[in-house]
């Protein structure tokens, strides 16, 4: 229901939709004060409550606050209205690793770089007691400098859970 150009919480101007899942849509947006590009994940509260997944959302927020690493998509802030939950996150311009792999085999040095960045990010998460549990090329993004960014901690687990 969010439309392009909508002003969200008097902070962000929503742009085009970047992706969509069962419970959420992700939009490109612009911070009205700084002009910074962000990704806004819009979660439908009613759908999440109906299937009893509110704890998953809370866990995702906790996890994203724990894992501040150069190869993990950063969470900037969480906002909510009566019907929606909004995550303002780092906008990663380069798209999914999946799309790059689908075009053909990666060069060895590029594949090695991605693998090292992935291992570094996952090692960091594990050292904080965070386990992603949904690593796949669709959840690995590439920034404009060709660096890998792990995203979508919706199925993650904490060591104590």
Automatic annotation (TrEMBL):
Q: Which Pfam families match?
A: Pkinase
What InterPro entries does its record include? Kinase-like_dom_sf (IPR011009), Prot_kinase_dom (IPR000719), Protein_kinase_ATP_BS (IPR017441), Ser/Thr_kinase_AS (IPR008271)
Q: Does the keyword Mitochondrion apply?
A: no
Taxonomic path: Eukaryota, Viridiplantae, Streptophyta, Embryophyta, Tracheophyta
- Function per UniProt: CIPK serine-threonine protein kinases interact with CBL proteins. Binding of a CBL protein to the regulatory NAF domain of CIPK protein lead to the activation of the kinase in a calcium-dependent manner.
Superkingdom of this protein's organism:
Eukaryota
Q: Report domain Protein kinase positions.
A: 12-161
Q: What is the scientific name of the source organism?
A: Kingdonia uniflora
**MF terms (GO), sorted A to Z:** ATP binding; protein serine/threonine kinase activity
User: Which UniProt key words apply to this protein?
Assistant: ATP-binding, Kinase, Nucleotide-binding, Serine/threonine-protein kinase, Transferase
Task: Say yes or no: keyword Kinase present.
Answer: yes
> What family is this protein classified in?
Belongs to the protein kinase superfamily. CAMK Ser/Thr protein kinase family. SNF1 subfamily.
PROSITE patterns named among the record's database cross-references: PROTEIN_KINASE_ATP, PROTEIN_KINASE_DOM, PROTEIN_KINASE_ST
Entry's Gene Ontology BP terms: signal transduction
User: Know the name of this protein?
Assistant: Protein kinase domain-containing protein
Locate the residues binding ATP: 41
């Amino acid at each position: 229901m969010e439309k392009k150009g909508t002003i969200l919480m008097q902070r962000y101007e929503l742009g085009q939709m970047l992706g969509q899942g069962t419970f959420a849509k992700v939009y490109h947006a612009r911070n009205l004060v700084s002009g910074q590009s962000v990704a806004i994940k819009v979660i439908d509260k009613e759908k999440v409550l109906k299937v009893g997944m509110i704890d998953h959302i809370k866990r995702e927020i906790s996890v994203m606050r724990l894992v501040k690493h150069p190869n993990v998509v950063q969470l900037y802030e969480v906002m909510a209205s009566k019907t929606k939950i909004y995550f303002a996150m780092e906008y990663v311009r380069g798209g999914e690793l999946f799309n790059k792999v689908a075009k053909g085999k990666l060069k060895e040095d590029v594949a090695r770089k991605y693998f090292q960045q992935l291992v570094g990010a996952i090692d960091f998460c594990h050292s904080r007691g965070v386990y992603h549990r949904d690593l796949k090329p669709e959840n690995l993004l590439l920034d404009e400098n060709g660096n890998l960014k792990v995203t979508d901690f919706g199925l993650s687990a904490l060591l104590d859970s």
